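Notes to self after the call with IL:
- keep both proteins in one doc
- input above output, always
- annotate only the second one for now

Protein 1:
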Amino acid sequence: MSNRPNIEQVVAAAKSLAPELLRIVRELYDAPELPLMEKKAAALLTGMLRNNGFEIKQGVAGMETAFIGTSGSGSPSIALIAEMDGLPGLGHACGHNIIAAASIGAALILNKLLPAGSATIRIFGTPAEELGIGKIEMIKAGCFEGTDFAMMVHPSSKRQVIKHFLGLAKVRFTFHGRAAHAAAYPEDGVNALDAVIQTFNSVNAMRQQTRQDVRIHGIITDGGVAPNIIPARGSCYFYVRADDLKELERSKERLISCAKAAGLATGCTLEIEEDPRIIAPMKILPAFYRIYSEQLALLGLEESEAPQDKNKGSSDIGNLSQTVPTIHPHVPIGEGINIHTEGFAAATVSKRGELAAEEGATALALTAIELIFSPARRADISKEFRESA
């Protein structure tokens, strides 16, 4: 295929888009929106795409703020992922403003430089990543059908190409007891808060026998209304994480056993609410990540040597990676800052944050171009995807 865009053209296009990328980063930062409420963000992003010739579908998968923008035609079909939601009280402390800017930037670069008929570029506005909802619902609705490869970047304290993610399951427990005056008639009461506390005690004891990658953490969401009333209702909410779905399921069942035992020990009845949206671990495809690493080298950017399996979180990008070959590299916005903090949010609108959005857009566009013009590499990635666990 002729007319392959070169690195100089991509870098120049990214530079010309820098004001638009900065606008995305700052406008989302200034007006952060909670999951499934990203109306201003979706309007800004879809408006930019429409102005550059993308066809837009809005309100997909039953979510008002979810969208798909499409440009070009032919195979392969490449997806760029734009997350949009902020965190309660912290705004864009996970850097979704940079994620959106980088993916929109890459889409606009490709739209401008690719020859007609060379590929289909689709950009997905995926709401509610912080709740682990958006991508899962879009997968269930078939939005990614026909997509060959998917990409996004995430801001971080380091430039790290491969980062592992844990699977995640969510469980709520509600215990029902019987209220009574805690001093005058304690023998008439059945204490639901005792059942909650016993659940935590059992989980804490269980941690000694869990695998190293397993994480179990929870909060009390209802512990009663007054000290002199034995609580008739108590509830708690847990996250369970693990490297693989089999261990995740095993650990979740052990957690549920702790709650059942607590109910039995205290005389409480128990309601269990499991979120059916299990967040999957990230499927790592070295052949795909290698292409992104090569683009960084061409840009003269050095990767961090940080361990790939340290400080792991969870994201619904893991579910997409189980469905479509997907990469999720990290771009640096400042040393020594961690996600979900006020300092991280502030760093997204620093000079390094601006450069990270531009870096992400450039590297993603270059990676897409290598995929489009290298059928053999696409075949290698697809084979690796099919054969990986």
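Protein 2 (the one to annotate):
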Amino acid sequence: MFDRGAADATYRYTLVEKHLLELIESGALIPGDRIPSLRSMSAKMRVSVSTITQAYVELESQGVIESRPKSGFYVRSNFRRLPLPSTEENALLVPRDVNRSELIRTVKDLLGRKDMLPFAVACPDETLLPGKELAGIMSAILREDPNRAMGYEPVCGNQELRKQIAFRCIDAGATVMPEDIIVTAGAMEAISIAVRCLTRPGDLVLIQSPTFYCFLQLLDTLGLRAIEIPSRADGGISAADVANAVSQYDVKACIFNLNFSNPDGSVVPDEVKEEIVRLLERRSIPLIEDDICGDVYFGPNRPQVCKKFDRKGRVLLCSSYSKTISPGYRVGWLIPGIFYERALDFKVTTNICTATPSQLAIAEFLRTGKYERHVKRLRAAIQKQMEGMQRCICCHFPAGTKVTRPSGGTGLWIELPEKVDSKEYFFRARALGIGVVPGLIFSTLDKYRNFVRLTCSGVWTKKIQEGIERLGDLAEQMKSQGIQR
């Protein structure tokens, strides 16, 4: 049903788009069907003909519908809804050394490149970030008390910033005090501190598969071994798989990203999160929880964090504002529970404290209520681009392609046809000026050789659309050439 009450949250023409897409995806309209005329749709949805026209033109530009002279608009014959990527179950759990660092370094060379289409870096477009607001806040701080930003903050972080972080943890279901929080230089520093608190070289760490490749690189540099359990695009990891792994091996810690997991976008249901926390609690196994994209949700409610169910202080919650406010300001945090003092020792021996100017600016941005308005707009922009990319992939990628349908986060996990090797695909795409991330680096295993991750920066432009189309052509070419893995 069309919800007119939602009109205050988005442009009216996007509501028309969504209504039509619901009709197509539900099967009420199938490829080749004629779409209701502009006037009939205008009367039905009680919006102007110009609004309907704008929605139709937008869907036509994305390859969902097509106009036929003197006949009207039709669902494109080649538009299709792609299935979700497959999940290969682990028949045997085996600890593995991590050996993906060389390829990971090659992929990370794309970070900060302005000459590449940004499908490889999970970073919002600069036009969507509050650069002017932050600059104004920073200017005011430096003008009113320039010495304030010159010295160290406490090792644990700025008090006002920790207060604001604690306040927003309530939305995620976690009840914490400012004194429970350590401010870090981004989420990766938080995760690095947490891992070093809990492990020694040679220890076993339980991760999901696929997992964020920086986690694998971290384990490699610390001399740790990984045990992988499968993550499914439509539900994430299961408590049964966690229980099976920890019953077989002496697992020292887990690293899980359960809300809009990178790369498959999965969300573990809250009841499963609680079950996982309880079974780890019984074995006194700490859980490092990465909630970096928890605020980038598309539905009405934010998914909850495992920290909500933590009764023993063994869940170490990590996140940052890199995906929502600014990656360059490098402000993240760690809530280490019973490991607080040890985490503080690792923090002080890493970089003493997080940069003072960044902490002051982010704290003021949060305190004045600007964050809630900003992140609402950001979520809408990322969702719009992600939906546009999904539709474009449906139309332009070869048969056999599968793609995720996340309810939040910043990326799409794509399974290409069997004969397309994602490592070769990465290098060929890079030569075309397009950044992608090969699936191989999201696991210690070799089961994602025909997968890639594409990220959404929150902008949908003709250039972005053409980039997706070129990636589709490249996949079709490699499939037809039969490049073997």
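Annotation: The longest helix spans residues 370-396. The chain has three domains: 4-75, 99-126+374-481, 130-371.
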